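Objective 1b of the project was to move from sequence-level analysis to a structural picture of ligand recognition. The entry below was assembled by the postdoctoral researcher (A.K.) and checked by the PI before modelling. It contains the amino acid sequence of the target and the SMILES of the bound compound, flavin-adenine dinucleotide.
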Amino acid sequence: MSPAKGEGTYNVVVIGGGTAGLVTAAATAALGGRVALVERGRMGGDCLNTGCVPSKALISSARLAAQIRRAPEWGLDPMEPRFDLGRVLESMRERRARIAPHDSQERFESLGVDVVRAHARFLSPHEVQAGGLRLRARNFVIATGSRPAIPPIEGLAGAGPHTSETIFDDLRERPDSLLVLGGGPIGCELGQAFARLGVAVTIVQRAARILEKEDEDAAAVVRRRMEADGVRVLTAAQARAVSRQGARVRVAVQTGEGREETLEAAALLVAAGRAPNTGDLGLDAAGVAHDAKGIRVDACLRTSRPHIYAATISRMWPTSTRAPSSATSCCRGRRRGRSRPSCPGAPTPRPRWRTSGSTRRRPAPGGSPTTCGPARSATWTAPWSSVRKRAS
Ligand SMILES: Cc1cc2nc3c(=O)[nH]c(=O)nc-3n(C[C@H](O)[C@H](O)[C@H](O)COP(=O)(O)OP(=O)(O)OC[C@H]3O[C@@H](n4cnc5c(N)ncnc54)[C@H](O)[C@@H]3O)c2cc1C
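Corresponding predicted holo structure:
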């Protein structure tokens, strides 16, 4: 008879029930290992609840609206899509709810995983406190993910901004206008989606261009498309102060040309980077080396304690759902000498493009102790002008 939940020693205790944690727990159970998964919030983590799933559901509605506006390109009469944004948002939440059972506690328990719904904290390198349970294991996988970072801008935190963690649940009706702080993948994809759904969107990007981590020519194509969708894009622009005036939010911005401009909108979305969820995890009690940017890992995602892995946001992995899954397969393949797998990326503003291996902006890693040698996949690059583009 197998021991009761929390008793004995597990093969693996996984902390975090997002993509990385779920994949790790399911794979360990499938291999016959005894595994516990600890999740303090919603099962499914960022991807299901506040990331890929709701954003892609919203984006699919927005894309359809944009296509309807371009009806004459398909030989149809010109037309304007008719919709209520409140109902579009409701449909996004319904679609998310239909997917949720795949990541549920019940499903993972049916796979043989002991699921514990609590905050987990290391008591020692071999023991984790999770609610009333003390979980002992031979190996641990930290899969605690990240959260939106709130930059230190005067008045911002008190102005009640949305982040990706709140906007999909809290927004119930159409704001006439939306200011987005941050022109990375999340700011761009959500800004474009809301613009296509009839909201006047302005993106304030501190860097000289949007999608800074992507190749310049690809980002320029996306910027043109976003502007054609009605998004106002301010680059090299610094948000200096934020204030709320009743239902409106105001952001004082210094533009790239050095002018001061005050932007006003009904809603504000902060998409200005991510911070790792490593606080209050007891990493010092576990002896796991870490800093403000995340946990230090080697090529096989081992931390400074070789029996503790970090298959989540770490210095060497880009933030994408595929990163943790690639990370997990990397751990599984380590005995066969595999190194860092090529982690595909697919930023989602339109038009869409995909990357695999290194890009000009993200060359293959090598050299520093927190990276893990060149990706093994060959990298093929071509000028953007030669790429066949399908607009949508
Ligand atoms: C708007 C948006 C759109 C995105 N779109 C895409 C996309 O299209 N494609 C893509 O590949 N990626 C996308 N991403 C990124 C993707 O969502 C994340 O990279 C991925 O979900 C990270 O998975 P994870 O398992 O590492 O972390 P998470 O999903 O964040 O899971 C971590 C879990 O750990 C739990 N946790 C944290 N600390 C503790 C603790 N001490 N004890 C117990 N539990 C704890 C948290 O509650 C959370 O559930 C998007 C992200 C956002 C925000």
